[in-house]
Amino acid sequence: MPKIIGGSLHEHREQTRHKLFAALSTLMEERGFDAITLADIAAAAGVGRTAVYNHFPDKESLLVAFITDETEQYVATLERSLEDIDDPTDQLRAYVFAQAQLKRVYHLAPGPDLRSVLSRATQQRVREHVMLVEQILRRILRAGIDAGEFAEQDIDTTVPLVNACLSSRSVPEADGPARDRALDSTVTFVLRAVGARDLAAA
Fold first, then answer.
1. Which residues contact residue 25 at a Cβ distance below 8 angstroms, ignoring those fewer than 6 apart?
2. Alpha-carbon span 135 to 200, nearest angstrom
3. How far apart, in whole angstroms, are the C-alpha atoms of residue 173 and residue 27?
4. Mean pLDDT of 113-141
5. SS3 for 201?
6. What distance in Å separates the CA atoms of residue 21 and residue 45, rounded to the nearest whole number?
7. Which of 25, 35, 37, 106 makes an SS bond possible with 31, Cβ 3.0 to 4.6 Å?
8. What are the C-alpha distances in Å from 182 to residues 72, 79, 170, 186, 193?
């Protein structure tokens, strides 16, 4: 019987899952999703290959679980950061800063774009979790438009445009003037794109 990690079977399962997520994340940075096998992931996580199948039937299921976990944590953190901000313009600034700094391993991985190697069903499941983040942006934009802080616009068009800008934006990782300028210019660009009335603090 395999050694239990943690104080209970539930803790063991959760810790094993997160070891697999960490291994997948690291391997994707190195070689891309298409070049990774479940055996590679098990070895990097320090668990037996059969342990992987106890949690996930295949590599795509593991990827979806990883993205789900990352997205849910990110959404919870973002929501907490917005709790004490009432002004829609300041909320949008906070959203842009968070998105611009977010490292999407599954978008930045080497090799083919994930959309070309995942099944249509898996692509849809990944898309459903991206929509959790989009819902926050929709809420901010609607509040800004209703308050007269943002220009009247088609939110269905604006949301993907803003997120496309943020997901492709390269921000220097090291703290310093270059990073600050990149973040500030990104915030200013997005605020102008949505027709924000007050850019004084951007």
1. 66, 105
2. 27
3. 20
4. 82
5. coil
6. 8
7. 35
8. 26, 24, 8, 6, 16
State how far the Cα of 39 lies from the Cα of 187, in Å rounded to an integer.
42
Residue 122 one-letter amino acid: T
The SS3 call for residue 166 is helix
The number of CA neighbours under 13 Å toward the Cβ of 162 is 30
Q: How far apart are CA 47 and CA 57, in angstroms?
A: 16
What is the per-residue pLDDT across 131-155, written as a single tens digit (0 to 9) for each? 888 999 999 999 999 999 999 999 9
Angle between helices 155-168 and 120-146 (to 10 degrees): 110
User: What does the pLDDT look like over 45-82, one tens digit per residue?
Assistant: 999 888 888 899 999 899 888 888 888 888 898 999 99
Tell which residue, 80, 89, 98, has the closest CA to residue 201. Answer: 89
